[in-house]
Amino acid sequence: MNVTFNEAVINAARLLMNAELEPDLARMERVESLADSWIGIAVVLAGRDDS
Asked: How far apart are CA 43 and CA 50, in angstroms?
């Protein structure tokens, strides 16, 4: 499965919006961590596009 930069950013944004609505702090932190992973993927993909 190939993921594009835009898909990675959209996934991160969706997760961050869901984290804001999560009442359980531990779950919110896990969702934010997943969003951070998608942001990292987006950074890698953006670097690929530049080369």
From this structure: 11
Within 8 A by CB and 6+ apart from 49, the residues are: 5
1-47, pLDDT tens digit by residue? 799 999 999 999 999 999 999 999 999 999 999 999 999 999 999 99
Q: Would you call 4 helix, strand, or coil by DSSP?
A: coil
CA distance 39 to 21: 20
- The residues, ordered by sequence, that sit 6+ positions from 41 with a Cβ below 8 Å of its Cβ are 3, 8
pTM: 0.88
> CA angle, corner 36, sides to 3 and 26, nearest 5?
130
